Amino acid sequence: MTQSKLPAGLHPDTLAIRAAAERSQYGENSEALYLTSGYVQPTAEAAARRFAGEEEGFTYGRYGNPTVSSFEQRLASMEGTEAAMSTASGMSAILMMCMGLLQSGDHVVCSQSMFGSTIKLIGSDLAKFGVLSTFVPQTDVDAWRAAVRPNTKLLFAETPTNPLTEVCDIAALADIAHKAGALLAVDNCFATPALQRPVEMGADIIMHSGTKFLDGQGRVMAGALCASQQMVTEKFLPILKSGGMTLAPFNAWVVLKGLETLGIRMKAQSAQALALAEWLEHHPAVDRVFYPGLQSHPQHRLAMAQQSRLGGAVLSFSVKAADPEAARKRAFHVLDSMQVLSLATNLGDTKTMCAHPASTSHGRMTEAQRQAAGIGQGLVRVAVGLEHIEDIKTDLARGLDTLS
Ligand SMILES: *Cc1c(COP(=O)(O)O)cnc(C)c1O
User: Fold this and answer.
1) What letter does residue 30 receive in the DSSP assignment?
2) Centre of ligand 1 from the C-alpha of residue 76, in Å
3) Is residue 189 in contact with ligand 1, taking CB distance under 6 Å?
4) Is 138 a member of any domain?
5) 6 Cα–ligand 1 center, Å
6) CB of 212 closer than 6 angstroms to any ligand 1 atom
């Protein structure tokens, strides 16, 4: 798809608004939404060349669409990669990455704090097809290095993580991967390219759930992989064609428009999250706050260096309690006392959402696994939105101030 002509050297904030496929003959200012599954071919010869991959041009909706292409060009330009390939969801982006890069007998190293479905997909589902994996502590660089084997093809990291906002050193992991002849992929959902561009620290593949901050208003599912043109064309496109995890044009259009405000949203929501984290840290009913923007966060300096000096929009806190049972009751009391904020496990929305990880997103783990991961019964996760900060505090104080 021909890209609209832009001068070189534009800032990511500008690319977030201007990078897209060429305008149609009608000169629309807002990018067009092309709802079509098929494309009329100019001649039989041209169709043959397009199907053979010898000529640019759309042939079928599963393989490509101009609106989808606009989203891919915009996201790639923001991440600083040559190309991107979008998918129907974040999980299908991970599936595409693994199917494109791995085969039976290959080994992957991941953090044990990765998104739950990622651990299930790589650790269990792909294990059925002979993909081997090792899960290591997120912040322990030596453990990542020690886990690498001769057949290791991929290191896959997520930073910051959900829900404890643990940060890993992207440059250090890129070094370990490349010395081993492997690739480093980074799930950049939480920081987004507005705060963190892993490619600049040596990552080879950036994975996204567009469902979160890229959309930004909780409307559609989407996913993407950003990488070199060669990797996208040779490794990911064949999987898209046969696997069919295609992003719908309407969803692509929503996320494309979401990218235009990503920068200001991430700055504003990070500022809100920092204010809330500082307030929570001083609340007498709160035991501990997990937020990379706080001085008390174990990787505060690394996070600030990696994430444009911002902590992101997700934080967690634990309520003080004598034992796990009391902790669960108290966390539930805080959540059930809310009158404005959403009790929801999603994130990346303008609406603030609060959840209890131990009984929802991490509910399928055993208590011992949860303890090892540090996800206690008193933990509450807050994905901070754009409501007035005083209203957010007041809504959480309803429960926090009335714990018996
Ligand atoms: C939500 C999420 C995913 C999965 O994305 P979906 O769009 O829900 O498939 C992967 N990684 C992280 C960090 C997420 O938050």
Assistant:
1) S
2) 18
3) yes
4) yes
5) 32
6) yes
pLDDT (mean) for 309-315 = 98
Residues 164 and 293 in one domain: no
Mapping DSSP to helix (H, G, I), strand (E, B) and coil, where does residue 156 land?
strand
E-only strand ranges, 64-192? 83-87, 107-111, 132-136, 152-158, 183-187
Give the distance (Å) from ligand 1 centre to CA of residue 115.
7
Give distance in angstroms: CA of 222 to centre of ligand 1: 9
State whether 254 and 272 are in the same domain: no
Q: How far apart are CA 157 and CA 184, in angstroms?
A: 8
Identify the pLDDT of residue 1. Answer: 57
CA 398 / ligand 1 centre spacing (Å)? 30
Residues 216 and 281 in one domain: no
Tens digits of residue pLDDT in 13-64: 999 999 999 999 999 999 999 999 999 999 999 999 999 989 999 999 999 9
Domain-located, residue 72: yes
Is the domain of 213 the same as that of 118? yes
Residue 67 structural domain = 12-261
Q: Which of 261, 282, 307 is the last residue of a domain?
A: 261
CB 274 near ligand 1, within 6 Å = no
Q: Are residues 153 and 232 in the same domain?
A: yes
Number of domains in the chain: 2
Residues 251 and 319 in one domain: no
Instruction: Give domain status of residue 127, yes or no.
Output: yes
Q: pLDDT tens across 355-369, in order?
A: 999 999 888 878 887
Cα separation, 106 vs 353, whole angstroms: 38
Atom of ligand 1 nearest to the CA of 346: 1
Nearest residue (by CA) to ligand 1, atom 8, is 90
Whether residues 313 and 330 fall in one domain = yes
